[in-house]
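TL;DR need structure tokens for one chain.
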Amino acid sequence: TSVHWHGIRQLLTNEEDGANGVTQCPIAPGQHLTYEWTATQYGTSWYHSHFSLQYSEGLAGPIVINGPTTANYDEDLGPVMLTDWYHNTAFSLWHIAEAGGPPPADNGLINGHNVFDCSTSNSTACVGGGKRYQFPEFKAGKKYLLRLINSSTDTHFHVSLDGHSMTVVSADFVPIKPYTAQYVSIGIGQRYDVIIEANAAASSYWFRAAIQTTCSAVNPQAGNVLGIVRYSGVKSTADPTTNGTSVVDHCNDEPLTSLIPYVPLSVKKETFNNVTDISIGLVFQNTFKWTLNGISGNIEWNSPTLLKLINNQPFPTDYHVLNLPDVATFVIESALGITHPLHLHG
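>> reply
TL;DR here they are.
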């Protein structure tokens, strides 16, 4: 296995990034490795296995690095991890994925919880049941910080709390100028810190993580990934009866006009003297592969990229090599009609 620390800037600690075949060899069964890195950012993120299909099996968890927020709150309710969930193991489903991409998930989970109705399943082994995730009680007038994390394999969510708005204060590891939203659109790997004020009538409310089928495989639980928020003093333990806001199914990011860094970030003005178009594509060569400019990376577990650099070895032809200290501006276009997340490592 190996463990990647998603979004962590590994300045001078590139070997701690946890990407097997790139910054390290995989950790063999029975062996161990201690990762050490310096937290130079603050906010919310997550860690996950970067080996084979392990993170789809649940080898993942939240990271919280304490620091200031751009709006006040009373209580930090901690991470809210959202994920899709497959009843069969990811390894047993690989033959489907390699032929045409990830198959539909069976369910979605909020911090590992949800219910399941066997009427949507073809499995004779289905037992159903489960329970909704219940948030700590809301106290009227208080403001609560929730750290939203999408740790899915193939699912985009719209997150909302019936009867309440959200104040978004951070996108990934970037504190932003607060803005108000009725829901947050969160793609795979993304994180948003939001503040919710308990300013509605004392009752029980559905917390929704609606699966967007525009870019995710059709999930029978798409509208049934729900948690429960109860106000202090509410005696009933019955499910909420609240209604959500009607929103068109889409997989767009939050509006760029809303994602304004609280502390301005300046970069060198692009000159576009050396421009390379980068296009995302798909190829089927006995298996399903993503490509950049027609090239799909070939990772060698026993010969990591970092080791090639240390040993001054030539890079394979399927590597896109940038020479420091060049400033690179990427304009990435997908002509596929489907969304796909990208993020930088190291």
